[in-house]
Amino acid sequence: MNPAFNPSRNKQNYLAAKAAFNARDIAACVAHYAPDHKLIPPAGSPPPPPIKLFFEQTIATWPDIEINVAHAVAEDDWVMGRSIARATHAVALMGVAPTHKIIETTFWDLHRFNAEGLMVETWNLMDGLSIMRQLGALPSA
How far apart are alpha carbons 39 and 119 in whole angstroms? Predict the structure, then answer.
């Protein structure tokens, strides 16, 4: 392990960022991200917005979203989390008019931290198929 990194501190910063997001304190949330933070998109996807705009767009789409971290693991300069997101489908999404149903899905996020304990890279993987099924955009399995 590189002694410049502090996995315990990084995990606490990850959890603090999630708590700030849930409190809608975007400034406090973004304070856990390096100014040059990169949100890494899946292969073939368009470039994502800067992290602050990403959070603002997420809240605009899911105004009451709440993220509950089920597991978080830290090692060296990495933190990996598995979370459950719950939100009301209140705006049109994926061609589906608002249903006002509570949508719940799992997502995983992997973050690389710098020596100061700030997130510098993020990868997200969300269960979009589950969201589409709950919206009624796909038949249930």
Answer: 10
